[in-house]
Amino acid sequence: MHGKTIGNPLSWSAQRLADIGRSAGAAVDGVGSHDMTLPEVNEIGLGDIRAALRKGVEEFAALRTDVITAVALYPVIGFVLAAWALHSGQVHLLFPLAAGFPLVGPVAAIGLYEMSRRREQGEDASWTAALATLTGRVLGPVLSLGCLLAVIFALWLFAAHGIWAATLGPEPYDSLLAFLRATFTTSAGWMMIVIGCGTGFLFAAIVLCVSLVSFPMLIDRPVGVPVALITSLAVARRNPGTTALWGLIVTMSLVLGMIPLFVGLIVVLPILGHATWHLYRRAVV
């Protein structure tokens, strides 16, 4: 009896370590694409965007409590970043942070894609059930692609800081009002706006093409990051006008959601997340 009492914790620990090892192995193995066969992509248009957005609104209404719980942390992080910029002498990074924060939005919507998939299959679509699925094979590729978007976000902030230093900087401004006055009343400020918007557009275009269908695809199919990325780029290449329109809709929606202290993102992000899933369904055979 004594030996059994000692053995149970040891065997339980060994089993948990084995489970962790298998999960880690599956996560690493899932990053690569063993089968490089690419799926066929469809031509999509304005009607597909409308249908996807309608589905997004319907799913937000049906899963309101769960989706709000799933994305509640996203606007909080945005508010914290904005507060840091205002109170740490980094006022010039306030707009780049707000404009670039949506670059990592697809990562925050991972749970929403899984909820849409589960609801589509008639399964439990609660946020707890969705998050429980994001392990092993799915988690590795998703985190890898998420790290890529985080790097792009960091590069955007470095670029924005460099543009500010070369125009209005490098002396920091003691208040937001002083910074805004210098931005809109000096030639250096307008130069910063033009160069910054052009640079930001390039970063946004890269992220849009990379994440258009890649994250939903990683949730839906046993493919690795290379196949998901190539497929996303193929969809963007075949549908440049639709992709640009979708990017504009996403951008304007996120801007509106961020205006009331990021609180609007609690509604905007779930609708866009669910809509992205349904756009993926229409874009990839």
From TrEMBL:
The keyword Transport does not apply. Coiled coil: none annotated. It holds the Pfam family DUF2189. This is DUF2189 domain-containing protein. The chain crosses the membrane at residues 67-87, 93-113, 142-164, 201-219, 245-272. Keywords: Membrane, Transmembrane, Transmembrane helix. It comes from Paracoccus litorisediminis.
